[in-house]
Amino acid sequence: MSMYGRDPWGGPLEICHPDSATDDDRSRNLDIDRGAMSRTLDETQQSWLLAGPGDQARKKKKYVDIGCLVVSRKLFVWTLGVLLAAAVFAGVVAGIAKAIPRRHRPPPPPDDYTVALHKALMFFNAQRSGKLPKHNNIPWRGNSCMKDGLSDPAVRRSLVGGYYDAGGAVKFNFPAAFSMTLLSWSVIEYSAKYDAVGELGHVRDIIKWGSDYFLKTFNSTADSIDRVIAQVGSAAMSPGSTQPNDQYCWMRPEDIDYPRPVVECHACSDLAAEMAAALAAASIVFKDNKAYSQKLVHGATTLFQFARERRGRYSAGGSDATKFYNSTSYWDEFVWGSSWMYLATGNSSYLTLATHPKLAKHAGAFWGGPDYGVFSWDNKLTGAQVLLSRLRLFLSPGYPYEEMLRAFHNQTSIIMCSYLPIFKSFNRTRGGLIQLNHGKPQPLQYVVNAAFLASVFSDYLEAADTPGWYCGPHFYSIEVLRSFARTQIEYILGKNPLKMSYVVGFGNHYPKHVHHRGASIPKNGVHYGCKGGWKWRDTKKPNPNIIVGAMVAGPDRHDRFKDARKNYNYTEATLVGNAGLVAALVALSGEGHGVDKNAMFSAVPPMFPSPPPPPAPWKP
């Protein structure tokens, strides 16, 4: 057996097994090798022969085999060094960059609506009654009226808490309930906006403070009741009377020492239905707290049943409410309350009631009148129509509700048309303020409600991919509605002939003599009795305490305003006024528009409309 290789001298090389060749063979091979060795070697071959073992090793060391590539050792070492140096340099640069304090680009300044919103919410903190939370953030306020209800021998239960209505210390449940309903509505629609400006937790606390108090004003654990608390405190003033009460005395709420009577009602459909609406709306706000939400729904159900079974107006009979918050009807509260009850429970019987033609007729849905379209604590019909239009736009329940829902939707469109200056449905001041209360005092509370409805309805249309609506043969874009809302709110914030902001603390020129007992009396450790506070009522000096965010009653029909503490028609702020202001501000605030389409329907089951009945058989 033999192996053949390549002879380095150019000839074949045969390697033989020791026993495989004879001497003659070896001799012949030797002759061949001598012939090959006699040839002249070229330079390459000579270099191979002359190179020693060290030279071969040195040549091998000049290259590095890294698997897929053979590179020069010198190049490899140089490249590796450069990479290490670059890594060290990058680390040093990164360390220096971290050590240098960063200058973040400041966020864009909030718009005027957002600034005013922060302030407007603070007004509710100033109006709290009872034991105040630590985070109330009103330094001149303290715990007050801690014996409400307990000091009345006819009641003997705690009615501590809730909100004072305005500049005094009376707690009127009717306007307070409407205020909480309106705030809850705004949170359901615009919770993302509240959250974006850091006020969602605050406004929820405000609503819960009111809801917790309402649950104290009736037997909220029972399935049926026969009475509801309507009012705590008294503001009745007969001619020549010197009886200490919340009207006659001028005292800080913390110093009140006169009796505070409790007013109960046994037939008050308007009050009970409005309180039911407040609790039902709040249950949607607090749907993330299942136990509390269910508690609110149960209370709302009990109240609404009471409202339907015991008919009557809460303000009948010459009570304090007749003078301050007289209710003209309870039919609008039935439409309003049943709408909220349906949204809170998903029970279709409430929707059947809300869309009943006779109920709508009693509420005034099919006739005009001077106050048609004016949304207020006394007239909820306009708000109910907007709310039910939302239901039609987004869920379209169909038969048997469609006919009345379409009627409500059409009426809502007409009301929105009436807000536009081109139609002259309402007068305006020369400065542009719409006169929804026909030139009477305290106009701003009605203006902010209209601004909210216009804003939220325009957002409904946009969410439904509808660019506008018709006023007769004329089509108007949703931007026209938003423009109306903006101009009215901007008037309130200072774009008016007097350059006066009617929201305390907003801007540089705002009322300094607000009709408010707590704000007008200094917190100086002195107890001012019933008459002792009169000097603070009558002084010409500005209030020592600024009641931030309070929207005062507003100017007269000639754009004039008197910053006088004793003239409450100009300078008094109320819960209902500020609730509407907050709702309008959050609707207009922030970039872009939009409502939460689904949050309102969290309790509403899927709807499968049944087809209408077939027509009657044809007869000749």
Automatic annotation (TrEMBL):
Enzyme Commission identifier(s): 3.2.1.4
Domain of life: Eukaryota
Gene3D superfamilies: 1.50.10.10
Sorted UniProt keywords: Carbohydrate metabolism, Cellulose degradation, Glycosidase, Hydrolase, Membrane, Polysaccharide degradation, Transmembrane, Transmembrane helix
Enzyme class: hydrolase
Region (Disordered): 1-29
Keyword Transit peptide annotated: no
Catalytic activity reported: Endohydrolysis of (1->4)-beta-D-glucosidic linkages in cellulose, lichenin and cereal beta-D-glucans
Membrane-spanning parts: 75-97
Residues covered by the Glycoside hydrolase family domain: 113-585
GO aspect biological process, one term: cellulose catabolic process
Gene Ontology MF annotations: cellulase activity
Active site (catalytic residues): 515, 563, 572
Alphabetized InterPro entries for the sequence: 6-hairpin_glycosidase_sf, 6hp_glycosidase-like_sf, Glyco_hydro_9, Glyco_hydro_9_Asp/Glu_AS, Glyco_hydro_9_His_AS
The keyword Transmembrane appears for this protein: yes
Family: Belongs to the glycosyl hydrolase 9 (cellulase E) family.
PANTHER family in the cross-refs: ENDO-1,4-BETA-GLUCANASE
Protein's UniProt name: Endoglucanase
Top-level taxonomy: Eukaryota, Viridiplantae, Streptophyta, Embryophyta, Tracheophyta
